[in-house]
Amino acid sequence: MTDFDQDTRTKLEAAAFRRLVSHLRTHTDVQNIDLMNLAGFCRNCLSNWYKDAADDAGLALSKDDAREIVYGMPYSEWKARYQSESSPEQAEAYERVRAREGH
After folding, report:
1. pLDDT tens figures, 5-24
2. 82 class by beta-carbon count within 10 Å (0-12 exposed, 13-18 middle, 19+ buried)
3. Looking at residues 87-103, what average pLDDT do you find?
4. What's 80's domain CATH number?
């Protein structure tokens, strides 16, 4: 593994994070439950991690504001525009993931 200095590493990680968020914003057809079932995390997890990082840094950031950073709009708006009803199979798979991941 390449040893980057901390500043370079942070910049690269931030760029990768921004690209991931942009990718998720573009692929609104991919439901959170699908992400969760396949990868064990979703947009909400990512926004929670963002909020946790702000909390760790002593910065005030609400859950809603963190979600808006990830979704690119208020969460309620994203849900109304893009979220579909989960199928019974998706819900069943999600329950297995929740049990495994401890969510």
Report:
1. 999 999 999 999 999 999 99
2. middle
3. 86
4. 1.10.3340.10
- Whole-angstrom distance, CA of residue 51 vs CA of residue 68: 11
Q: Could you list the residue range(s) of the whole structural domain that residue 48 is in? A: 41-103
Q: Is residue 18 part of a domain?
A: no
In a domain, 20, yes or no: no
Name the domain count of the chain. 1
pLDDT tens by residue, 40-80: 899 999 999 999 999 999 999 999 999 999 999 999 999 99
